[in-house]
Amino acid sequence: MITLNIKNSRQESIDAQKGNKNRFNSFAPIRSNTSVSWLIDGQDYFEAVINGISSAQSFMYISSWWLTPKLYLRRPANEDNNRQYQLDLLLKKKAREGVDIFVILYKDLHGMGSEYTFKILTALSPRIHVIRCPDVPLLWSYHEKYLIIDGKRSFVGGFDLSFARYDTVDHVLSDYPSTNRPSEMFPGQDYNNPRVRDFQRVSHAGETLVDRTVIPRMPWHDISMFMEGGVTIDLIHQFEVRWNYLRNLKMLKGLKLPALPLERIVAVNHLSNNSNSINNDFGGTNQVQVVRSASNWNTDVSHEKSIYQAYLDLIAEAQHYIYIENQYFISSVDQDNMILNKVGKALVERIKLAHLKGENFRVIVVLPLLPGFQGDLTSFESSAVRSIMHLQYISISRGEDSINKRLEQAGINPSDYIEWYSLRNYDKIIPPLKKSRLAHLSSMIFRHRHRHQLQQNRDIDYFVSEMIYIHSKVVIVDDKRALIGSANVNDRSLLGDRDAEVAVIVEDTEYVPSFMNGKKYEAGKSILDLRLRIWKEHLGLLEVEDWEDLSLPGLEQDDSEMAERQVMDPLSDIMYQILWRNKAKRNTLIYRDVFHCVPDDTIFTYDQHTAFVPDSKRIPYGHAPGFNNTPSDNNATTIQAKLDKIRGHLVQFPLDYLNQSDIITRNVWEMVTPLVIFT
């Protein structure tokens, strides 16, 4: 049996914080024998959180950027007694059972309702304690997202316990009850599209802010992980030190809050009456290390940026491939740049080395098509969207200091080594007809004998498309190591003295046979599982059972599991061309043809943008040309035939969109807004 002395572990974290003796200069050491489970998309995550909260016997620590108490963790809420899994009801139940609950919550200034959340949670039970951070307005935010149960189990990643995060692998755009699903999956504010209207009045949980009869919801793709093992002690240390630090900053008001750890937290559940040991025999094979971005505005440390160091080291040490999935990509390749982090430079240097040595090396980056903020791209209200777009484009492909330009200057074709992708989906919004309307339409059909044409006219109105919003913060390297947490690729998350972030580095010591560059390869089991699960969802391959039946060139495996791993070889040029490039290109072309959606690589100026996108006065957001009999080259039958050819959700990230326009200076407000807010 493996044991961990909790007092010594706390002291070890403190000593490491002072001496920076750990890898990546982290406050936390590498912990072995950790068991991990990947939680991909909201349904997986929320179900695991239900199990975690329900199992709590002693205490819970919750760290969150956003928390909405009236969140339903299991859907549909109106079926199978699922209302009992509303977040505030679950927490209240556990508090009544004697569980102490401590919450650190970002004190927002943007209508996310942290004051409302504070009042709701603290009114549930005297055992529930909440601190909002920071106490004074700052440009930076408390962005960490993790949950600790009884000191044994923990959740870390990109998910907040909040509206709009629940989703399934299907990432549907509509939410009307049907014969198969008689209740709504996304009630109230959970049916959301921030590109049309961002969150408001979050205390009104049952209010839907967009018209669900017309406007598609924006799907949400995110990733977190569940862990059992000694690594949880470092998250405990992280939470307790910050709690006490913030409590002291509140002075007299803070004295009303208990200091941590409570004596009963140290004494019960995971510690026996005569031992200071925590049982760590979880049978895990993963080595896990906590890394963070922290400084003295949010905790008792001057400055730590171990997430940033982990990024740089993971990139530099990569041997075969790097897969990045993130909400933002804002970075620099130059020392004299307002963007300070050098993740972009690290990628350029690693690619240049691969080119020099003749290595088959690949970087794949998956980002949202657009930042998830409200506003038409030509309007005043979209200034935040365009500011972030500008920063991302100068990081990726525009200007002499972008990744692509630096590679071209070195005689390297960027797409030989690094490519950029996004996610999109389509659906139908078919509101149920009222009986009077149904009778009227039936009468029209009978009178005019044009049933097929009327059906065509109605059907074309139903089609919608929307990007899938990528909120995950994941790096996977060589099927050996992964980073998962709350940190974006930007200065806010990585520099340490801005947003507060937390992440973990995972490396599996159990290896399984796989493929890399067409050759047999030993991959870390859990890391390979993570990559395959993500890729199969994006590529539309989750339902494949017999991989040998795909009839792909070069597939030689009789065993289905090994055939899957050969198909998904990240360095196989044939597989990459077929599964990534060809699929993303075909999907992109279909969406362009059917929906005229932006951003798009054929649109270089604002005038072209205005001419290309559907007229918003006649065609609702997300709908196809042809809506309500507007001119179109398509009808419902041709649209459906084209959409049937889409596979998965993968599309090309539009590197050339508005590349002949000045994205950033469309109005005076934008010219005086400090871009550092968005870096």
What does this structure look like?
This protein has 679 residues and is an alpha+beta fold. It has a domain at 3-9 and 36-283: Endonuclease, Chain A (2-Layer Sandwich). Helix content is 32%, strand content 19%. The strands form four sheets. It has a 17-stranded mixed sheet that branches. The radius of gyration is 26 Å and the shape is globular.
**Cα-based radius of gyration, to the nearest Å:** 26 Å
Largest sheet: 17 strands, mixed
Structural class: alpha+beta
- Which descriptor suits the 3D outline? globular
Number of H/I helices = 19
Helix content: 25-40%
Q: What is the CATH first-level class name of the domain at 3-9 and 36-283? A: Alpha Beta
Explain briefly what this protein structure is.
By secondary structure, the protein is α+β, with helices and mostly antiparallel strands. The model is unreliable at 1-10, 267-279, 435-439, 444-456 and 666-670 (pLDDT under 50).
Write the layout of secondary structure elements.
Elements: E1 3-5, H1 6-19, E2 30-40, H2 42-55, E3 59-64, H3 87-96, E4 100-106, H4 114-124, E5 128-133, E6 146-149, E7 153-157, E8 220-221, E9 223-228, H5 232-249, H6 263-267, E10 277-279, E11 286-295, E12 303-305, H7 306-317, E13 321-325, H8 343-357, E14 362-366, H9 383-396, H10 403-409, E15 418-428, H11 435-448, H12 451-462, E16 463-467, E17 469-470, E18 474-477, E19 481-485, H13 491-494, E20 501-508, E21 511-516, E22 519-524, H14 525-539, H15 560-567, H16 573-595, H17 606-612, H18 636-643, E23 650-652, H19 668-672
Parallel strand pairs: 3-4, 4-5, 8-17, 13-14, 14-15
Antiparallel strand pairs: 1-10, 2-9, 2-11, 3-6, 6-7, 7-9, 11-12, 11-20, 13-18, 15-16, 15-23, 18-19, 19-20, 21-22
Helix pairs in contact: 7-8, 8-10
